[in-house]
Amino acid sequence: MNIYDVIIVGAGPGGSMAAKTAADLGLKTIFFERGRKPGEKNSSGSGLGPRIWKDFPSLMKELTPEKCPSMRAGSAARNYFVNQEGIVAGYVMARPTESVSYEPAKSWITMNCYRSEFDPWIAEFAIDAGAELKTSTLITNLLKKDGKVCGVIDEHNNKYQAPIVIGADGVVSMVAKQSGLRTKWAQDQITVVPQYDFQASPEKIDDIMGDETLAVWWSAIFPASYQVFFHDGFHQGLGNWLNKWDKNPLYYLNRVINLKYYQRLLRILNAKPRELQSHLLPWLKYPYNTHTDGIILVGDAGGFPCPLEAEGIYSAMVTGKFAAEVAAEAITSEDFSKNFLSKYDEAWKNTSIGEDFETGEELYNIWKALPFSPQETMSWFVPMFMEAMGGIYDWSQPHAKRVRQIASQIKSYMPQALPFIMKYVIPLLAKIFEEDIDKMMDPQKLMSALPKLMDLIPKKKKPRREDK
Amino acid sequence: MKLNGLTKHIPGTVDFIFIDQSKCNRCGQCILVCVVNLWRKTNNIISFSEDYKEKCLECGACYQVCEADAIDFHYPSGGTGVIFEKG
């Protein structure tokens, strides 16, 4: 029998952080990876945000291009707006703005790095700290004694014993299932995300994209699609909740690829498709059932990706670290009860992730209703936004007439826009600013005032002197 | 886009997708969400490709989407299955 203090199922960023933390705390630690090496089973957008550097500075300063050659950092993001006709109606490039308060984030927004490099890199820290990594090993069940979890069993019936098991085994978590914490996700808690990787030369990427590192394609004909640039390639992917698809997810991803504009981008980048990937991604309003007797779930297994845009690596690392710290306390106290392990919830709730989930429901709702509802919402949002952004670039009329035309056009979207603002934007703002909705803005007043404001804009030009 | 050559596998020998026909309600959601089109409906029976071990991306969407609980999925044997080199 193999006996340990703590067992971690999974060697992604969450499992490796848990293993590193546990080993640093002097625990006899083992972590398991079903792939031949960490990261070879993982696909994701793979953007690492500045929060990771903020929270794990000594670790992240070790991340260098020598270790992870695919690294590419950048300081700008591009937003494309694709209308119902499949035309890029406009785009906005954005750099960190004046209100950014974390100094390093003033010069870069994300560091992108393939999981096949990042995951083995982070696992090395756990190994260096003394944790034992077992690769090519599929854990198939929990080991139980008198109904209590006391370890895990692999597919060859090898048994590993420990009083506490950390489930870092991703979205389809065996640990969550076998511990009774969750059989399946509900359809509106889980997204499927197909993704292409394209190969392109670093010189082309630098020439054409400059220091842009990320693009989001907001669209009326597919759910919002992300583009993430690496040293010698890029990802193009999209997702939506499982109950939101009316056609195959790849059909919608191919709609992005087949945009005339996108095809031009592929041509000038001389980009070639290199890999097709797909993964599930939990996307919740709030994590639940994160632990039980002898079990803690971290990262995707616990449903921790960000409720707004589903950043998952950071939340996996943070929850992995706290899970190991709580496991160490449980070992010291010899108490592995669900009640004792609730310290884990207290810990993550008190972090940046906990703060994101305080507005989780509102963030989730607005994302679901806007970029993930292309036909219902983006079909009016894109032309409305572009009317405001680009309407003035028409020299066929006197400028004043153009302004009236633009205003009138924007006004025509109000029957859709106002209910949207009331239902999704106001509740979010109220939560963010910790204000009662009524106090902040009387919805009825707003509903009646906005159209009136729009009415102030004259429908017809005032008669000119010579017209009288 | 042609998908040939865009995925890499080390096919294992142990099965990891199962369908229980007595539970299946033929809703076809598995066909809808599978990115690599492993699922099909013939004569009102839902089935999946025999060569799925060389094609499955192991996302688990078929398993998650099945509200009849007819599909069982677990990850393939350690060291086998799909390989993402640029994931």
Radius of gyration of chain A: 25 Å
Whole-number total of structural domains of chain A: 3
Helix content of chain A: 25-40%
Distance between the termini of chain B: 19 Å
Major sheet attributes of chain B: 2 strands, antiparallel
Low-pLDDT segments of chain B: none
Rounded to an integer in angstroms, the radius of gyration calculated over CA atoms of chain B is 13 Å
- CATH first level of the largest domain in chain A: which class? Alpha Beta
Q: Tell the overall outline of chain A.
A: globular
Structural features, described:
- The complex is a heterodimer of chains A (468) and B (87).
- Chain A has 468 residues and is an alpha/beta fold.
- Chain A has three domains: 2-69 and 114-182 and 289-358, 3-Layer(bba) Sandwich (FAD/NAD(P)-binding domain), CATH 3.50.50.60; 72-112 and 186-287, D-Amino Acid Oxidase, subunit A, domain 2 (D-Amino Acid Oxidase, Chain A, domain 2, 2-Layer Sandwich); 391-467, no CATH class.
- Chain A is 40% helix and 22% strand.
- Chain A is built from 18 helices and 21 strands.
- Chain A has helices spanning 13-24, 50-55, 57-60, 115-129, 174-178, 202-209, 249-257, 260-269, 313-333, 338-341, 343-349, 352-358, 360-369, 374-390, 399-412, 414-432, 437-440, 443-456, and strands at residues 2-3, 6-9, 29-32, 47-48, 72-74, 76-82, 88-94, 110-112, 132-134, 139-145, 148-154, 159-161, 164-167, 190-199, 212-219, 225-230, 233-238, 240-241, 272-282, 291-292, 295-297.
- In chain A, α1 (13-24) runs parallel beside α9 (313-333), α13 (360-369) packs antiparallel against α16 and α14 runs antiparallel to α15 (399-412).
- The longest helix of chain A has 21 residues, at 313-333.
- Chain A is globular, with a radius of gyration of 25 Å.
- By secondary structure, chain B is an alpha+beta fold.
- Chain B is 11% helix and 23% strand.
- Chain B has a two-stranded antiparallel ribbon.
- Chain B has a domain at 25-77: 2-Layer Sandwich (Alpha-Beta Plaits), CATH 3.30.70.
- Chain B has helices at residues 29-33, 61-65, and strands spanning 8-10, 17-19, 39-42, 45-48, 71-73, 81-83.
- The A-B interface holds A 34-36, 39-44, 46, 70, 114-116, 135-138, 140, 154-155, 171-172, 174, 184-185, 187, 190, 192, 194, 196-197, 230, 233, 242, 245, 247-250, 254, 257, 273-280 and B 1, 3, 6-8, 14, 29, 32-37, 57-61, 63-65, 67, 73-79, 81-87.
